[in-house]
Amino acid sequence: HGWFDKRWMYEESMKMPLIVKWPGVTKPGAVNEDLVQNLDYAETFLEMAGTEVPSDMQGASLVPLLQGNTPANWRDSLYYHYFEFPAVHMVARHNGVRTRQHKLIHFYQFGEWELYDLQKDPEELTNVYGQPEYAQVTADLKAQLIALQKQYNEDFDMSVMNAEWQAQYRKPELAE
């Protein structure tokens, strides 16, 4: 991908291994493929400690998953948002949604979209955004993206970056 930092929504940057040993609760060698995110950790640790989880927290406790009991209403998609730009790393602002099969990324400063079929293209090398056979997937993921933004109370400037900044970012050798 030519990425130069860990803040991208691509798999090699987004995925994190999580290993849990909880005697009497987790089964040795058990593997869980459910979609989890780092904002679930606080709720998980609070529940493990027997402490009340504040209602304004945005994650979900992983305790049922660790017990081998994935709730029927467990999430089927993940929301991602990176917004720190400009900064020393120059990672473009982007957000998106990932399901087990697809990933939609919106580089909203540039007005650009990427869509990957993670089953057919796990390395995310072929952007299928705009291809007719993915029109329904795209529409569904855009709807999920909006729903997740509302769920997490996301309210941010999604304006497209001006042409001068775009030139500086995309082709710095051509910028004046």
3D architecture notes:
- With 176 residues, the chain is α+β, with helices and mostly antiparallel strands.
- The chain has a 4-stranded antiparallel β-sheet with strand order 1-2-3-4, covered by helices on one side.
- It is globular.
- Helix content is 23%, strand content 12%.
- The longest helix is centred in the C-terminal third of the chain and has 17 residues.
- 15% of the residues are buried.
- Could you estimate the helical fraction of the residues in percent? 10-25%
Overall pLDDT score: 86
H/E topology pattern: HHHEEEEHH
Strand order of the largest sheet: 1-2-3-4
Which outline best applies? globular
CATH structural architecture of the domain at 76-170: 2-Layer Sandwich
Which fold name corresponds to the CATH topology of the domain at 76-170?
Arylsulfatase, C-terminal domain
Structural class: alpha+beta
Radius of gyration: 19 Å
Span between termini: 27 Å
What's the story with the biggest beta sheet?
Answer: 4 strands, antiparallel
Number of helices: 5
Q: What are the low-pLDDT stretches, counting only 5+ consecutive residues below 50? A: none
Layout of strands and helices, then pairs:
Blueprint: H1 11-14, H2 41-48, H3 63-66, E1 78-82, E2 94-98, E3 102-107, E4 112-117, H4 135-151, H5 163-170
Antiparallel strand pairs: 1-2, 2-3, 3-4
